[in-house]
């Protein structure tokens, strides 16, 4: 577990995730709680970084990330399902992203109600320009909220950026 001396001053007053072991909870629940605490830290920092670098909301950023992994685009119902978002909320987010010139919407051939969304070249370029900074934000948030053993366990779940097949 990182001590307050090992964390930046703005993080010294917040406790790091507790180490696993002991206590009343089984290891799976304790691990889940550590993961939730770390995720909260990452999400809080990423919200700010995303707004500063891309000028979109965190939820809109998640839509962009999902579409970045699907070059041909996705139906809006698939986006809603994959992100666990209500379709009405997603419609608003898609409209904002389309207005910003970051996504396109088109009707699905053969389905008059189906709408498919995809990234624009502008969005792809902005994601290329900012992805290293945003990835560093995630790494630093994890480093500040977990001890070395916990970071190693989480890192085993996250692909190494050097091995990333999407890296250009």
Report helical residue fraction.
Answer: 55-70%
By helix and strand content, what is the structural category?
A: mainly alpha
Q: Please tell me how large the radius of gyration is.
A: 19 Å
- Strand order within the widest beta sheet: 1-3-2
Walkthrough of the structure:
With 168 residues, the protein is mostly helical. The chain contains six helices and three strands, in the order ααβααββαα. A three-stranded antiparallel sheet has the order 1-3-2. The protein is globular and about 55 Å long. α1 (27-54) crosses α5 (121-145). β2 and β3 (111-119) form a beta hairpin.
Record keyword descriptors for this entry.
168 residues, mainly alpha, 3-stranded antiparallel sheet, 6 helices, 55% helix, globular, disordered N terminus, disordered C terminus
